[in-house]
Amino acid sequence: MNAQGKLIVRSFSVSLDGYGAGPDQSLDSPLGVGGFGLHQWAMATRTFQNKVFGRDGGATGPDDDLAAMGFENLGSWIMGRNMFGPVRGAWPDETWKGWWGDEPPYHCPVFVLTHHARAPITMKGGTVFHFVTDGIEVALDRARQAAEGKDIRVGGGVTTIREYLRARLIDDLHIAISPVLLGRGEALFDGIDLPALGYTVSEHIATLNAMHLRFHRKD
After folding, report:
1. What does pTM read for this prediction?
2. Which residue of 44, 113, 190, 214 sits 20 to 30 Å from the alpha carbon of 158, by its own alpha carbon?
3. What is the DSSP letter of 45?
4. Helix-strand-coil percent breakdown of the chain, rounded to 5?
5. Assigned domain for 209 exists
6. CA–CA separation, 147 and 61 (whole Å)
7. Per-residue pLDDT reduced to its tens digit, 143-154
8. Alpha helices (H) in 52-179, listed in sequence order
């Protein structure tokens, strides 16, 4: 492990036609139209059933192994405003505390990129949401300090991952290509030249439910 931890993306699902979220995202459809289908491979795993839904059971095997990798050695998270909640623009109030209920599945500091300041939110289970208005590098600096040498996971959405990729700040990227077509939405790699940015495919694993690809940045 890097002495200061890695900046990683784990279990980020995209469609066969390259979309990481469907169109027309809303409170009723947070992943966009058809977006829920991207994550069917993950929802069935023991890791997601336990870590995200707080349930016992779930499937084991390669999909679960890769899902579990996303929760190892984590010290903090970074996410975009849209992943935190559906509200746009200035915060109308501070009643919205995320999609995950009283005890989100993060259990560590989470740094939310936004243009609008807001006081931190402390949740059950150790999750604290911090709102960063100074850009991706400041968010990363703060996340590194909070992680205390562990890894920092970029949870999404698409725009946030693209910003960190363009800045060559992501060390290790795992995407899962799901066997669904969305037709439109948010394209993860649109306009991004991964080889020119120094990224290469280091591993690919096919399962019944997805094609898993891992990318590493060459130093």
Report:
1. 0.92
2. 44
3. B
4. 25, 30, 45
5. yes
6. 29
7. 999 999 999 999
8. 62-69, 81-84, 136-147, 158-166
Give me the domain span that covers residue 110: 7-19+30-88+98-217
As a whole number of angstroms, the distance between CA 90 and CA 78 comes to 20
Neighbouring CB atoms inside 10 A of 135's CB total: 12
Cβ of 71: how many Cβ atoms within 10 Å? 18
Determine, yes or no, domain membership for 164: yes
Question: Considering its fold, how many domains does the chain have in total?
Answer: 1
Ramachandran area for residue 206 (φ above 0: left; ψ -120 to 50: alpha; else beta): beta
| Residue type, position 196, single letter | A
| Nearest by Cα to 51 from 103, 10, 102 | 103
Burial of residue 27 (number of CB atoms within 10 Å: 0-12, 13-18, 19+): exposed
Q: What is the pLDDT of residues 153-177, one digit of tens each?
A: 999 889 999 999 999 999 999 999 9
Instruction: Kindly state whether residue 93 falls inside one of the protein's structural domains.
Output: no
**CB–CB of 177/32 below 8 Å?**
no
Helix (H, G, I), strand (E, B) or coil at 108: coil
Report the CATH number that the domain containing residue 115 is assigned in CATH: 3.40.430.10
